[in-house]
Structure formats: structure tokens, C-alpha cells
């Protein structure tokens, strides 16, 4: 598609937004009763509801035209077809191949990758079974009871988020109970030492997860964990074999660390770190759920893949999610998006999506290296409701900015406390309603009058007690939080990200922006050593280093 088409289509959106600006969401909801039919879709077990977006039929048409002008159908074909969509690293981005069924085919450079994907899944299955049936035991002969995943970024957030979300589906391991799952990412020694205080060296398995096996935080923590284990095994280094496995693409570095190839589960450079939970990076998930549960998680994602691959732009859930984000950002002045799961199980969904989206979409040049016009990725933030309601929702309701919200709720709970869940869901729906409709000053006055307030007080408080409303949100509902639906949900977000990147012509799959800080940290680490002389720095950095050298 040529650029002038893209630009023209995006200009149409600005006109549509100007046309809609005077209309409040209350009016939009009344004017278009067909919104519920048109703007709610059910796919792969998810109910996606865009009825509370500041869009009408004509604006949607403009968005679909923008997607077509940006060549979204072709971009999706390239992704699924294994083309090198990660142009700056010359790689495909085939997280979709990780969830293909055994009988499917998917070629990278003429080679079908599905057999190697399933070979690793089968190896994972054998290992998970051995841990669960007690064939695989710790150095003293006791069964494995706890798993500590050591990884960071994409090698942490995916399994951490899924393990929290699906803990109710955990199956018992050899010790009789489900495995105790722990995650250590931060290089702050506080994180690892806290976990080491809780686990028993004789029954703990460490999963060292790093795509590159060069990440400072992960390797430092892994070395410390290994020392701790050997110390508790009376100095016997052979204990490491039973207690350490690695997940990586870097076989030689794993061996150099002292983990043998039989204890390594590989993946490939065409899997991006933040898209890797479907690969062996998901080993903690498989250990917790059992392999059947992990395969169900993959199957749910595959179902979403098939929808996204085959649906037209108009019916494509990922395209619509992306177009809503584009609309809010380009025409509604949104700078961020709040992810608000009303479910404790989805506690780590906001940070997971934060990495997935901000690392993927935090780009300032197009695929061809020229600067983008306007903005790319939004800030993604959030927390579980109802905690958020009592913390930051005030700004969402009455602040001066319009912050689009993305609510996620689950119809059925796994716990057996009957009173809580309807309350939680009522809060979820009420917040979406309140953000959309608001409360006018007249309504605020009427409410205060009904409560017997005097006229002077009513006048003084009416402006403070009114809500502008007209604040957009998307509502995502799931019947249950099970492996399939969670897989579908995460795959949907992945595809949304890729569609947005294609609309902006940026690369969703590299992350050069994190390199500079990593390189400088290496230099600063040497400068903090009191035995050495600090190297040259700007005055601000030099002063910080100097203070730390004197106080550490
Ligand atoms: O810091 C960025 C990053 O490269 C992420 O993209 C990645 O998920 C994380 O570091 C961890 O990398 P690795 O899996 O290679 O340790």
C-alpha cells in the first residue's frame, strides 16, 4: 500500500472525530441502539465489547478503510507465513507456530518448524511427567515440591502471569500437592533470598530461563541459587543436575553454565522474548498444570490465531482492538490505556501487557528507518479492580485527561465464597457504565436535594459532585478462566499489537531501546568498585556514583 493512501485514510479519521466530538457517549448509545449487535463479538470463548467507545458506524468504516489502506490483511499473511517481519534482526516472528497442531506445517526458510516445536513439547512432557510421578527426584531422593523460575522480562512475566491466573487448575505432583511456584526476576538480592528462605533445597527445582543466556540479572541470580544448592548438598556439585534445568536458545552458554543438554529445553530466534510463553519458557506453566493443561493453553491461542488469520478486517477481533487503540490515541488525545482486570487471578495481566505492548510498540522510526509522524505505543498501566477503584479511579472519572480503560472480567469464580463474586462483577460493570455516562450537574443537584441538602450547599457542591462521563472503555468478558480462554486472550493481545505496529509501519519485534542502559550499567558497575577509579561521566552521573561509593 502506498503511503498517500495511508495518510488519506488517517485524515478521514480526524474528520470523523471532529464530527463526533460534540456527541456524548450517552447520546451515541441512544442514537445507535444497534451498537450492541455491531460492537460486541464473541470469539474463542471471549466476549469483546466496544459499545462504550466513542465511535459510530461511519467512524468504524473510516477505521476499516485505514486498516485496508495500511495493508493489514497482507501484513497478517506475512506474519503467519513465516516471513522476516522482524526486519532489523532479519527474523520471522512465529509465536503462532508454537501453538500449531502436530499435523500442521509452517515453513521458515523452506524448513517446516512444526516437528521441532513438537519435539520440544514432547521432551517437556516427559520431564513434567517424571517430576509429577516422582521418577525425577532431588539429590536426597525426595520428590520435587517447589519450582523457582529465574528469568526476567519475557522469560518471567509470561509464566508468572499464567501460573497466577491458572493456579486453580494446578495438578498434584509427586509430593501429593501441586508444586509451589516461585518467580525471581530482579537482580536485587532481596528477591532471591526471600524465595530461598521459603523453599527446601532437597525438593526445589530451578528453571533458569533466558533466551540469550547473557542477561545479567538472570545469570547472577542463577549462580547464587546454584551456590546455595551446592552448599546445602554438603558441597556436592553433582546435586545441580537434579535441581537445575535451563530454557534458552543458547545451548553453548547453557552448557558453559553447567547445565547439560539433556536438562535444556530449547526454542528459536524466531520467538521474541515477550511472545515466548508458548515455547519452553512456559515450562513452569506445564509443571504446574501438567502437560495436558499446557497443551490446552496452546490450543486456545491457536483458536484465536485461526480467527485472526482468516477473518476479514471488519470481523477481525485483533484488528478491531488495534483500531480502537489507534482511534483513541490519534483522535481522542489518549496517551495511555488502563488495563483493569476484575479478578485477582489476572493480577499480573497489566505488567505482562505492559511489556508486550511497550517493548513492541515503543518505536520512533518506521521499518524503513524514517521517523514516524505522530505517536506510536501508548503507556500501558493498570491494576486489579476493585483495589484500583480506591486508588486511581478518581482521576479516571474526574481528572482532566481522557484515559481509555480496558476492563476484563470472568463470569465464574473458582472459589466458594458466594457473596464476593457478584459484588466484584457488579463493580466491574458499574465502572464501565459510570465512565461512559457520567453524572451531570443537574443529576448531582437532584441527588443532593433528595438527600435533604440545603440549596446553598447544593450550589457549592454541584460541580464537584458531577462527572463528565464520555470516557471510553472496552469490556472483555470470559465465562471461565481456563487454559483455553487465557490462551485465546493473550494471543488476541499479541495480534492486536502486530496490527497496530503494521498501521504505524514499525517493527513490533525488536527492542534496541533497552540496550543502551544495559551497556552503561556494565561501566557503572566497574565504577562503583571502591578499589578502582571511576571512569569519565557527565557531572550528574559522576556525582551519583561518587555519593554511592561513599555510602555503599
Ligand atoms: O531487556 C529486554 C529483554 O531483552 C526482553 O526483551 C527480554 O524478554 C528480557 O530482556 C530477557 O532476555 P533473556 O530471555 O534473553 O534473558
TrEMBL record:
<comment type="pathway">
    <text>Carbohydrate biosynthesis; gluconeogenesis.</text>
</comment>
<feature type="active site" description="Proton donor">
    <location>
        <position position="359"/>
    </location>
</feature>
<feature type="active site">
    <location>
        <position position="518"/>
    </location>
</feature>
<comment type="pathway">
    <text>Carbohydrate degradation; glycolysis; D-glyceraldehyde 3-phosphate and glycerone phosphate from D-glucose: step 2/4.</text>
</comment>
<dbReference type="GO" id="GO:0006096">
    <property type="term" value="P:glycolytic process"/>
</dbReference>
<feature type="active site">
    <location>
        <position position="390"/>
    </location>
</feature>
<dbReference type="GO" id="GO:0051156">
    <property type="term" value="P:glucose 6-phosphate metabolic process"/>
</dbReference>
<dbReference type="GO" id="GO:0048029">
    <property type="term" value="F:monosaccharide binding"/>
</dbReference>
<dbReference type="GO" id="GO:0004347">
    <property type="term" value="F:glucose-6-phosphate isomerase activity"/>
</dbReference>
<comment type="function">
    <text>Catalyzes the reversible isomerization of glucose-6-phosphate to fructose-6-phosphate.</text>
</comment>
<keyword id="KW-0324">Glycolysis</keyword>
<comment type="similarity">
    <text>Belongs to the GPI family.</text>
</comment>
<dbReference type="Pfam" id="PF00342">
    <property type="entry name" value="PGI"/>
</dbReference>
<dbReference type="InterPro" id="IPR001672">
    <property type="entry name" value="G6P_Isomerase"/>
</dbReference>
<protein>
    <recommendedName>
        <fullName>Glucose-6-phosphate isomerase</fullName>
        <ecNumber>5.3.1.9</ecNumber>
    </recommendedName>
</protein>
<dbReference type="GO" id="GO:0005829">
    <property type="term" value="C:cytosol"/>
</dbReference>
<dbReference type="GO" id="GO:0006094">
    <property type="term" value="P:gluconeogenesis"/>
</dbReference>
<dbReference type="InterPro" id="IPR035476">
    <property type="entry name" value="SIS_PGI_1"/>
</dbReference>
<keyword id="KW-0312">Gluconeogenesis</keyword>
<dbReference type="InterPro" id="IPR023096">
    <property type="entry name" value="G6P_Isomerase_C"/>
</dbReference>
<dbReference type="GO" id="GO:0097367">
    <property type="term" value="F:carbohydrate derivative binding"/>
</dbReference>
<keyword id="KW-0963">Cytoplasm</keyword>
<dbReference type="InterPro" id="IPR046348">
    <property type="entry name" value="SIS_dom_sf"/>
</dbReference>
<dbReference type="InterPro" id="IPR018189">
    <property type="entry name" value="Phosphoglucose_isomerase_CS"/>
</dbReference>
<keyword id="KW-0413">Isomerase</keyword>
<dbReference type="InterPro" id="IPR035482">
    <property type="entry name" value="SIS_PGI_2"/>
</dbReference>
Amino acid at each position: 500500500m502506498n503511503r498517500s493512501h495511508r495518510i488519506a485514510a488517517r485524515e478521514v479519521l480526524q474528520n470523523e472525530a471532529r464530527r463526533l466530538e460534540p456527541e456524548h457517549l450517552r447520546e451515541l448509545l441512544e442514537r445507535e441502539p444497534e451498537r450492541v449487535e455491531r460492537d460486541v463479538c464473541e470469539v474463542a470463548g471471549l466476549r469483546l465489547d466496544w459499545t462504550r467507545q466513542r465511535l459510530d458506524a461511519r467512524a468504524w468504516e473510516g477505521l476499516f478503510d485505514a486498516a485496508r489502506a495500511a495493508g493489514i490483511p497482507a501484513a497478517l499473511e506475512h506474519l503467519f507465513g513465516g516471513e522476516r517481519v522482524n526486519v532489523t534482526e532479519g527474523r520471522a516472528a512465529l509465536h503462532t507456530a508454537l501453538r500449531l497442531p502436530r499435523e500442521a506445517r509452517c515453513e521458515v526458510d523452506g524448513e517446516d518448524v512444526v516437528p521441532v516445536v513438537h519435539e520440544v513439547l514432547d521432551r517437556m512432557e516427559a520431564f513434567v511427567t517424571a517430576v509429577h510421578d516422582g521418577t525425577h527426584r532431588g539429590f536426597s531422593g525426595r520428590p520435587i515440591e517447589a519450582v523457582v523460575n529465574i528469568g526476567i522480562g519475557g522469560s518471567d512475566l509470561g509464566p508468572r502471569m499464567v501460573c497466577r491466573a491458572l493456579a486453580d487448575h494446578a495438578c498434584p505432583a509427586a509430593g501429593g500437592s501441586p508444586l509451589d511456584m516461585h518467580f525471581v526476576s530482579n537482580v536485587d538480592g532481596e528477591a532471591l533470598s526471600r524465595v530461598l528462605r521459603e523453599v527446601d533445597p532437597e525438593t526445589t527445582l530451578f528453571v533458569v530461563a533466558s533466551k540469550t543466556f547473557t542477561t545479567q540479572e538472570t545469570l547472577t541470580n542463577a549462580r547464587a541459587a546454584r551456590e546455595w544448592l551446592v552448599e546445602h548438598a554438603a558441597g556436592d556439585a553433582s546435586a545441580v543436575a537434579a535441581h537445575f534445568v535451563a530454557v534458552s536458545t543458547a545451548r553453548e552458554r547453557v552448557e558453559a553454565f553447567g547445565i547439560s543438554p539433556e536438562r535444556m529445553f530449547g526454542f528459536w530466534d524466531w520467538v521474541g522474548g515477550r511472545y515466548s510463553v508458548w515455547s519452553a519458557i512456559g515450562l513452569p506453566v506445564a509443571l504446574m498444570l501438567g502437560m495436558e493443561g499446557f497443551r490446552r493453553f496452546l490450543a486456545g491461542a491457536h483458536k484465536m490465531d485461526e480467527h485472526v488469520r482468516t477473518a476479514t478486517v471488519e470481523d477481525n477481533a485483533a484488528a478491531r482492538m488495534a483500531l480502537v487503540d489507534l482511534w483513541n490515541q490519534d483522535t481522542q488525545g489518549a496517551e495511555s490505556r488502563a488495563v483493569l482486570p476484575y479478578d485477582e487471578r489476572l493480577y499480573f495481566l497489566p505488567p505482562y501487557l505492559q511489556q508486550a505492548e511497550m517493548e513492541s510498540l515503543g518505536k520512533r522510526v518506521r521499518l524503513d528507518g524514517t521517523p514516524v509522524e505522530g505517536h506510536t505505543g501508548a503507556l500501558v498501566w493498570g491494576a486489579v479492580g476493585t483495589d484500583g477503584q480506591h486508588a486511581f479511579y478518581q482521576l479516571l472519572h474526574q481528572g482532566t485527561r481522557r484515559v481509555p480503560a480496558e476492563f476484563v472480567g470472568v463470569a465464574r469464580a473458582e472459589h466458594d465464597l458466594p457473596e464476593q463474586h457478584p459484588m466484584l462483577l457488579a463493580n466491574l460493570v458499574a465502572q464501565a457504565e459510570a465512565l461512559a455516562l457520567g453524572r451531570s450537574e443537574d443529576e448531582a443537584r437532584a441527588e443532593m436535594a433528595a438527600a435533604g441538602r440545603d440549596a446553598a450547599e447544593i450550589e457549592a457542591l454541584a460541580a464537584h459532585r458531577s462527572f463528565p462521563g464520555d470516557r471510553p472503555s472496552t469490556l472483555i468478558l470470559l465465562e471461565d478462566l481456563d487454559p483455553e480462554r487465557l490462551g485465546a486472550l493473550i494471543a488476541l493481545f499479541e495480534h492486536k499489537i502486530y496490527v497496530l505496529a503494521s498501521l504505524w509501519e514499525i517493527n513490533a519485534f525488536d527492542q534496541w531501546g533497552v540496550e543502551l542502559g544495559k551497556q552503561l550499567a556494565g561501566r557503572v558497575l566497574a565504577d562503583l568498585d571502591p578499589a578502582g577509579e571511576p571512569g569519565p561521566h557527565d557531572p550528574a552521573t559522576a556525582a551519583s556514583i561518587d555519593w554511592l561509593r561513599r555510602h555503599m
